[in-house]
UniProtKB/TrEMBL annotation:
This is Ankyrin repeat-containing protein. ANK repeats lie at residues 459-491. Keywords: ANK repeat. Residues 323-343 are annotated as: Disordered. Gene3D superfamilies: Ankyrin repeat-containing domain (1.25.40.20). Residues 330-343 have a biased composition (Low complexity). InterPro entries: Ankyrin_rpt (IPR002110), Ankyrin_rpt-contain_sf (IPR036770). Signal peptide: none annotated. It comes from the Bacteria.
Length: 569
């Protein structure tokens, strides 16, 4: 349960309220393309025609809700995964399916890509197959059965949707009662056996050596009832009786289906054994088989049903009815209003500051006195200091002087050093989470509302460092016009250009940065004593494969501009 606070934040920001409402409105009109626009999904052209029947129910907001997350302190989507959205079986090599591609970075854009391919053209075996209830609004109600619910109730909750006390879990003989008993014994072979999965061996078998901890954690996180149901569904849909559930780079559980019987066998395959039979099996993703996180959050009191996606709430808690109208905040209330301040399903304002624009204040010790620093619409206001004092402090900072008090807080807000008071830290986090998950549209709304264009995140990165995550053709001129520093350093000492070269930004954006004055001779990303081109030369000595053509074009461009005036070529 240590991940639940993190999941609460994911549920607050990962699928913005406006995205849910606009996707629902587009679906109601039968306009799946508008739904993709609202859901931050790019359509990828290809040789196959997009299957209209699948797209008729495609819900970008719903699939984003259910996709695995990176975790580890991140609210963003798990990266480097291709998902298959397939029709009901049998699915063969020539069946046209939807391919959904996850973002490339946990720190970058959260846009997804959608295209159509034949099943045989997918990048097997790593592609992950999604269940219909995870992406098709017409099938969203099937989530109830997937989590072990029946017509009366879902596990850990009564027929009226109220939470059951822990002492009552597993006492009933219905299907949710069985799921509760499995939950109480989770992580043990006995729980898997009760779910109908025969475990060949023991989760504590010393054969696994140091990997036994990972196996235990995987077994504890997975809901074996959900696994039993899903792997049988997949076996029937895709005609594949054997699946691999990896919990380590070289170790997996082989899941075999024979009718209603399911068996799990621990298998080891060294990393160099790429042709090992287990590596050729289609894969199950552990995050899609875990104990249902939304039920965990509601049962533990971290969320209410009203904070869930409306389609998820309708499947799990159909008796909750309409979302209540939130009570208005008292005038002058200083607490930050997060997206969880209001239930989902109520009409959201089209302003990204609709639940943010209150003034947030913090007391700061400055010159022996307590001063108040306020955040107003994403910009700091130093109430105790006039413009002349601020100019004097900036000059002192430019000459290497030490800033303290209110000015140190301002430096932490717009620079790469210092710490923010807790309340202002929460404001900054809220702003960045809204931008990361809301995309370019939210960024420009916040800037229009007055947000400081020099705002930094916890790593000292500003919008310049994250240009590739947004509409950079519009954002870069906007930031330059506002006076943003094109060579600003983050906490690691990297400029936006160094970040862009390391992360594979397109040549056009690299050219635009250099044309704006970015220094091609800057220090390389993650290298303390090497310039960009020195780092490239160092890396090339260890590369076994040539760089992609786009990367080579960027390098050639930089070579022609080191030591010369920044001009467009």
């Amino acid at each position: 349960m240590t991940e639940l606070p993190q999941w609460r934040r994911i549920r607050a920001y990962g699928v913005p309220e406006r995205m849910i409402e606009e996707c629902a409105a587009a679906r109601a009109k039968g306009d799946w393309q508008a739904a993709c626009v609202a859901g931050e999904i790019d359509l990828v052209p290809g040789p196959e025609r997009l299957p209209e029947e699948l797209l008729a129910g495609f819900a970008p907001d719903l699939v984003r809700w259910h996709l695995p997350r990176a975790l580890g302190g991140h609210t963003t989507l798990a990266t480097g995964i291709e998902y298959a959205l397939a029709p009901d079986g049998p699915v063969g090599p020539d069946t046209v399916v939807l391919r959904l591609t996850a973002p490339a970075s946990v720190l970058g854009s959260q846009r997804l890509r959608l295209g159509a391919v034949r099943m045989s053209d997918l990048g097997e075996p790593g592609v992950v197959r999604l269940a219909p209830w995870q992406w098709d609004a017409r099938r969203a109600g099937e989530l109830r059965a997937a989590v072990g619910g029946d017509q009366r109730r879902v596990p850990r909750f009564g027929p009226d949707g109220d939470r059951l006390p822990r002492a009552e879990l597993g006492l009933r003989t219905d299907r949710p009662g069985q799921a509760e008993r499995v939950l109480l014994d989770r992580g043990t072979p006995e729980a898997w056996d009760a779910a109908g999965i025969v475990v060949d061996g023991d989760f504590t078998d010393p054969y696994f050596g140091q990997a036994v901890g990972r196996l235990r954690r995987t077994a504890a996180a997975i809901d074996p009832l959900r696994l039993h149901l899903e792997v049988r569904r997949l076996a029937e849909q895709f005609g594949q009786p054997s699946w691999a559930l990896w919990y380590d780079r070289s170790r997996a559980l082989r899941i075999d289906v024979d009718g209603d019987a399911v068996q799990a066998t621990a298998v080891e395959a060294n990393w160099w054994e790429q042709s090992a039979p287990i590596r050729l099996l289609p894969r199950l993703h552990p995050a899609l088989l875990r104990s249902p996180v939304d039920l965990d959050l509601v049962w533990n009191g971290l969320l209410t049903p009203f904070h869930l996606h409306p389609l998820v709430r309708s499947a799990l808690f159909p008796t909750t009815g309409a979302a209540p109208v939130p009570s208005p905040a008292s005038p002058g209330a200083g607490s930050l209003a997060s997206p969880l301040s209001s239930p989902r399903g109520r009409a959201a304002s089209h302003s990204s500051f609709s639940r943010f624009s209150r003034v947030e204040a913090a007391r700061v010790r400055c010159g022996g006195r307590w001063h108040v620093v306020e955040s107003r619409d994403g910009r700091l206001v130093l109430l105790a200091h006039d413009d002349a004092e601020r100019r004097r402090e900036r000059a002192m900072r430019a000459f290497g002087g030490t800033v303290t008090g209110c000015f140190a807080v301002e430096q932490a807000w717009t620079g790469n050093a210092g710490r923010l008071p807790r309340r202002l830290h929460a404001v900054r986090d809220d702003l960045w989470l809204r931008m990361v998950h809301g995309g370019s549209r939210v960024v420009f709304e916040l800037l229009d509302a007055g947000m400081d264009p020099d705002l930094r995140d916890g790593r000292g990165r500003g919008l310049m460092h994250l240009l590739r995550s947004f509409d950079h053709e519009r954002l870069l001129p906007r930031l330059l016009a506002a006076g943003a520093d094109v060579d600003a350093l983050d906490r690691e000492g990297s400029t936006p250009l160094a970040t862009g070269v390391a992360l594979g930004w397109p040549l056009g954006l690299i050219k635009a940065l250099v044309a704006a004055g970015a220094n091609p001779g800057c220090r390389a990303y993650n290298y303390r004593d090497l310039t960009l081109l020195e780092a490239v030369e160092f890396q090339d000595q260890m590369r076994s494969e040539p760089r992609p053509a786009e990367a080579l074009a960027v390098i050639d461009f930089l070579k022609g501009h080191v030591g010369s005036p920044a001009t467009e070529s």
